[in-house]
Amino acid sequence: MKNNLAERRAERHWTQADLAAVLGVSRQTVISIEREKFDPSLPLAFQIARTFDCSIEDIFIAD
Questions:
Q1: What is the pTM of this model?
Q2: How many Å from the N-terminal Cα to the C-terminal Cα in the chain?
Q3: Does 62 have pLDDT greater than 90?
C-alpha cells in the first residue's frame, strides 16, 4: 500500500522518532510504514490519520 506519511511528517518538521513517540510505536515501525514494507493495523492507521487531522484515505493509497 502506498502512503505519503513521510511528506506529512516532514510538513510538521517531525523526525521519525517524534512521530513514533506520538503514536506510541518504535521508530522502526515508522520507517517500515514510510518505506511501504509494512502496512499498519487498522487501529494504528486511524491513529495516524487522527494525528494528521485527515482521513485514512488521505494518507494510505491502495495500489
A1: 0.93
A2: 6
A3: no
Residue entry with cell 491513529: 47
In angstroms, the Cα distances linking 26 to 21, 39, 42, 52, 61 are 7, 14, 17, 18, 23
- E-only strand ranges, the chain: 2-3, 60-61
Instruction: State whether residue 50 is helix, strand or coil.
Output: helix
Q: What's the mean pLDDT in 13-21? A: 98
Task: Report the candidate in 55, 52, 47, 11 with the shortest Cα–Cα distance to residue 29.
Answer: 47
Measured CA to CA, the distance from residue 63 to residue 55 in angstroms comes to 17
Per-residue confidence (pLDDT) for residue 6, from 0 to 100:
98
Count of residues for the chain?
63
